Amino acid sequence: MSIELYTWSTPNGRKISIALEEMGLAYSVHPINITKDEQFAPDFLKISPNNKIPAIVDPDGPDGKPIALFESGAILLYLSEKTGKFMPSNARARYDALQWLMWQMGGFGPMLGQAHHFRRFAKEQVPYAIERYTNETRRLYGVLDKHLKEVEYLAGDYSVADMATFPWAARHEWHGIALEDFASVKRWYDAIAARPAVEKGMAVPG
Ligand SMILES: N[C@@H](CCC(=O)N[C@@H](CS)C(=O)NCC(=O)O)C(=O)O
């Protein structure tokens, strides 16, 4: 039975379509148009009470019963546990992957999102906010670049931490970053962009 994916054409949504493609799981897509407030529809709120995409319903949950999940980090961990893929089993490596996943969820996502808002969508130009979030974004790219000088992927092997981080880096023009300024990020980015599952996942919801 296929997993129901509730999503929109945003980095957080595409984390999950990438993971589903990488893991070879069958899924059907339900576009939730957040520009038309569809995330506030009562039926969607039953699945995602924080009125945000992505969310999933897996008819075949851990106990064989359906499970609904929101928050992209939780969904990635659920899918990796379900399939036994893209999370290391060794405890030390697992915590390495978890810390980079949490880094993405707490920083390289929320801060880039604020940069997008103030650089592209805010009704008034607020130079302080533009500078604050653009600088913080650049700092985070510096952290990522330094780490990727030492390792091929965020937790050594390709994992859900990379799947979470890549779609945000794919919006680098929106947050004022030239990937050429971060050579190791660029090497990592190009390798992930070339994966067929990533190409398919990035095209969802179409
Ligand atoms: N921490 C959440 C963030 C999800 C999120 O911010 N989703 C945005 C689109 S990328 C959304 O649905 N926004 C609609 C709204 O805030 O009303 C996650 O990672 O799943």
Strand content: 5-15%
**Biggest beta sheet attributes:** 4 strands, mixed
> Which molecules other than protein and nucleic acid are bound?
glutathione
H-E string: EHEHEEHHHHHHH
Task: Give the fraction of residues assigned to helices.
Answer: 40-55%
Instruction: Give average pLDDT, whole number.
Output: 98
Give me the Rg, rounded: 17 Å
- Give the quaternary arrangement of the chains: single chain
Span between termini? 22 Å
Structural class: alpha+beta
Strand order of the largest sheet: 2-1-3-4
Total of helices: 9
C-alpha geometry = globular
How many strands in all?
Answer: 4
Low confidence ranges: none
3D structure, described in words:
The chain is α+β, with helices and mostly antiparallel strands and 206 residues long. The chain is 54% helix and 9% strand. The protein has nine helices and four strands; from the N terminus they run βαβαββααααααα. It has helices at 11-23, 42-47, 72-83, 91-106, 110-121, 127-150, 160-169, 183-193, 196-202, and strands spanning 3-7, 27-31, 55-58, 67-70. Strands 2-1-3-4 form a four-stranded mixed β-sheet, with helices on one face. Helix 1 (11-23) links the parallel strand 1 (3-7) and strand 2 (27-31). Helix 4 packs parallel to helix 7 (160-169).
